[in-house]
Specification:
The protein has 192 residues and is an all-alpha fold. The chain has ten helices and no strands.
Length: 192
């Protein structure tokens, strides 16, 4: 699953400080099991041709809320359009990775990289922009809802039975919660 997306080097991410055992505990906490892995792969098939449409919905949502757009603005308060575009490309790959990649050590390492890019440790470095120094954790956490709720209509477009759509949607929700839990680690490393 190699990609040529600028700023996206999945295989170069440093190992995560989160252990395999801790990841397993988080998986158990959200009831994420083998059936969810299957459902996510199926969701990946369904979403593969709709990624840009999903991103349109998400970017419209973020763009309509000044406080969510703020981490993408410069000192003048105006959004960096090129920064938003580069992040959008990586966000699209994140959708694919959520559904298609095994949740192994490499995946865990890249989750840490994503997390750090939201904090003062690495925010703005990948794209060499001057913007806010972090994305507030409260926004990362509360975006769980729109990122999970808005995916359902795209899954429903598959025409698959309602119970299959529900399984894909629940697997997506569990995965997003799991990832946000991992992304919270750098914000509160001593308490994590």
């Amino acid at each position: 699953m190699a990609t040529t997306i600028p700023g996206y080097d999945y295989d170069a991410a440093a190992p995560s400080p989160v252990s395999a055992e801790e990841l397993q505990q988080l998986r158990e906490n959200v009831l994420f099991g083998p059936d969810d892995e299957v459902a996510l792969k199926q969701a990946g098939d369904v979403l593969s041709d709709q990624v840009e449409d999903v991103l349109d919905v998400w970017y419209d949502f973020v763009g309509s809320h000044r406080h969510l757009l703020h981490p993408f603005t410069g000192a003048d308060g105006e959004p960096h359009d090129d920064y938003l575009a580069r992040v959008r490309t990586r966000f699209g790959q994140w959708i694919r990775d959520t559904c298609e990649r095994p949740y192994d050590a490499r995946w865990l390492a890249y989750q840490e990289e994503i997390a750090l890019r939201h904090t003062p440790a690495r925010k703005n470095r990948t794209d060499a922009v001057e913007s806010t120094s972090y994305v507030p954790l409260r926004h990362v956490i509360t975006l769980i809802y729109p990122i999970t709720a808005t995916i359902r209509p795209f899954l429903e477009k598959s025409g698959l039975p309602a119970e299959t759509v529900e399984a894909m949607h629940e697997a997506w929700r569990k995965s997003v919660i799991l990832q946000v839990a991992l992304w919270s680690r750098p914000y509160a490393a001593q308490l994590w």
